[in-house]
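Is this the right way to post structure tokens for a design question? Let me know if I should format differently. Anyway, here goes:
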């Protein structure tokens, strides 16, 4: 009991001298700083999680060199999940005598699951968000291909045996950061 009384007297003495106020102020600043940092990291984490979905154009990506079995799509549908299919392969696009090596992307009608596509009517022109995709016999080309092929919207290009009409300029797709260039692949 004597130790408790001495501690209380020391506390009162420190309070009168002003040392306790400095200690309490330092404690208040430390708690405030920790709380602010906690809130900040929480907000950054939430923003990163939201942006990650757009970088993938989905919340999760299942990728394979071989076709993915239908059972995975059926399982996802049974769980109430949305799915989109993307097939990508390198090929040559031709317009007359001009040709360009590019990555051809064929997507299902539900693509993209996250984010929006942006298209323009002319290369490097003002872009707008769209929810539709190219129709049968149509293709959207990235701006760089217009220069390489000396092409315009409305021109026809060949991909293998298929002839396609250029209907829009593909300005942005949510997952484009992942595959901005063609790289060598192992088979």
């Amino acid at each position: 009991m004597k130790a408790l009384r001495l501690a209380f007297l020391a506390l009162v003495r420190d309070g009168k001298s002003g040392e306790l106020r400095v200690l309490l102020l330092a404690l208040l600043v430390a708690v405030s700083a920790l709380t602010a940092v906690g809130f900040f990291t929480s907000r950054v984490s939430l923003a990163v999680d939201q942006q990650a979905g757009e970088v993938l154009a989905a919340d999760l990506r299942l990728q394979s060199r071989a076709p993915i079995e239908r059972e995975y799509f059926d399982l996802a549908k049974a769980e109430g999940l949305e799915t989109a299919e993307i097939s990508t392969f390198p090929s040559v696009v031709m317009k007359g005598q001009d040709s360009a090596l590019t990555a051809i992307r064929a997507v299902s009608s539900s693509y993209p699951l996250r984010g929006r596509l942006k298209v323009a009517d002319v290369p490097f022109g003002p872009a707008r968000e769209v929810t539709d995709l190219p129709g049968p016999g149509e293709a959207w080309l990235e701006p760089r291909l217009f220069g390489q092929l000396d092409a315009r919207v409305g021109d026809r290009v060949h991909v293998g045996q298929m002839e396609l009409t250029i209907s829009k300029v593909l300005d942005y797709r949510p997952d484009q950061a992942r595959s901005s260039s063609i790289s060598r692949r192992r088979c």
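Format looks fine. Someone answered above. Worth noting: The chain has two domains: 2-55, 70-179. Confidence is low (pLDDT under 50) at residues 179-187.
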